[in-house]
From TrEMBL:
Belongs to the LysR transcriptional regulatory family. Residues 308-323 have a biased composition (Polar residues). Pfam families: HTH_1 (PF00126), LysR_substrate (PF03466). PROSITE patterns: HTH_LYSR (PS50931). The keyword Nucleotide-binding does not apply. GO terms for cellular component: protein-DNA complex. Residues 298-323 are annotated as: Disordered. One of its GO terms (molecular function) is DNA-binding transcription factor activity. It comes from Nocardiopsis mwathae. Keywords: DNA-binding, Transcription, Transcription regulation. Residues 4-61 form the HTH lysR-type domain. This is DNA-binding transcriptional LysR family regulator.
């Protein structure tokens, strides 16, 4: 531990995200040459190459990728410990930052109330994160945990609590023929363009929430992508296409120019409180326990048994968790 240099570790983690020496330097307010110097020092200290750099691209070595995945939660825990100590020293309340997508669901607000009753010296702060980037704010340290639409299949993240099973609906223009129907089937999705989520979300996550084919394999037309829910609703209202949304999101966003039609033949959606894997955080565990007590959790059997109508590709992407 005597040889541990925090600045080297911080520089490496930022470089692992940016894969660009110049942008890494900008984020850390240091020169590009200083980034290279810190990386060489860390590689020398460890005894292995972490990054491969050519004239055209920068990428992590397999060893570097494994090291970054193992280092990231430990670094976050250390940073949180220092921040909490600073808060105590200032006499301020300690805080936990929770990200959310689209809307703060009723189950979450009830959990926040329960948490505050049990932890009067601690505060939960809610921060909205882009619908198209469920994990970015968590990885950048902007939030401590995030309530997001599942699935999550990340090596450094885990869904601590899975809850809020909801029926999937299709948001369509109020003038569209689907708007006059009590429900549509999953195969009907091939008859209207879907507005995809255009952002850094993993491909497996996008396939669940913005599918390009029906369960029977029929292609689904694709419109211009969006990054936020409000962008998507605006395009829908103007007649550009449709989006798949969970039932709760539909309820929170009722408007006269958009109709929300239930979709049969698709698995229900699910939310998860996503946490850094392997990180001990008593406050997050307390908040997760509050959600478990106040929200309707999804039985394990329901979460693990895919719908018989789902396609092979959908099953492989945890397709029970649609938006």
């Amino acid at each position: 531990m005597a040889a541990l240099e925090i600045r080297e570790l911080e520089c490496f983690l930022v470089l692992a995200e940016e894969l660009h020496f110049g942008r890494t330097g900008e984020r850390l307010y240091i020169s590009q040459s200083r980034v290279s110097q810190l990386l060489r020092s860390l590689e020398s200290r460890i005894g292995a190459r972490l990054v491969e750099r050519t004239s055209r691209r920068v990428h992590l070595t397999p060893f570097g990728a494994d090291f970054a995945a193992s280092l990231r939660p430990a670094y976050r825990a250390l940073a949180d410990t220092v921040e909490q100590a600073r808060a105590v020293a200032r006499g301020a309340r300690s805080r936990t930052r929770i990200g959310f997508q689209g809307a703060i669901y009723e189950q979450v607000t009830r959990a926040i109330t329960v948490f505050h009753e049990r932890n009067p010296g601690h505060r939960i702060d809610m921060t909205e994160i882009p619908l198209s980037d469920p994990f970015g704010a968590l990885r950048r340290g902007e939030v401590d945990a995030a309530v997001v639409l599942l699935p999550v299949e990340e090596p450094d993240l885990v869904a601590g609590v899975v809850f809020s099973q909801q029926r999937v609906t299709l948001a369509v223009p109020a003038s569209h023929p689907f708007a006059r129907r009590p429900r549509i089937g999953a195969e009907d999705l091939a008859r209207i363009p879907l507005i995809p989520l255009d952002g850094p979300a993993p491909d497996y996550w996008k396939k669940v929430h913005s599918p390009t084919a029906t369960p029977e394999g029929c292609p689904i037309p694709q419109e211009e992508g969006v990054q936020t829910l409000q962008e998507g609703l605006t395009l829908i209202a103007s007649g550009r296409g449709a989006m798949l949304l969970c039932g709760a999101t539909a309820e929170y966003n009722r408007r006269s120019d958009v109709a929300f039609v239930p979709v049969s033949g698709l698995p229900d959606s699910a939310l998860g409180l996503v946490l850094p894997r392997g990180r001990e955080a008593p406050r997050l565990e307390s908040f997760a326990a509050a959600i478990s007590e106040t929200a309707v959790r999804i039985p394990r059997r329901a979460r693990e048994s895919p719908s018989p109508r789902m396609s092979k590709n959908t099953r492989s992407s945890h397709a029970y968790q649609k938006r």
